[in-house]
Amino acid sequence: MNSSTPGKSTSPVEVTHISNHGVWLLAHGQELFMPHDSFPWFRNATVGNILHVEEPTPGHYYWPDLDVDLTEEIISHPERYPLQAK
Asked: Residue 32 pLDDT more than 50?
């Protein structure tokens, strides 16, 4: 029996959890947390809009239904990027 996965993963980025605290994104084996205080665009968004995430280039995530562009750097270090939507 061969338990290896055939081919490449077709979903390198996905939202794994949504709560009243924030959103968890799994990208290339790394889990990234986006708290609503730092990423307010997701607080009142629909589940469908949050789940619809694309990765146009490695480390760059785009939610087309919300028109939100974020990078891995911004998600990992939001304190370095103080401009936020109100």
From this structure: yes
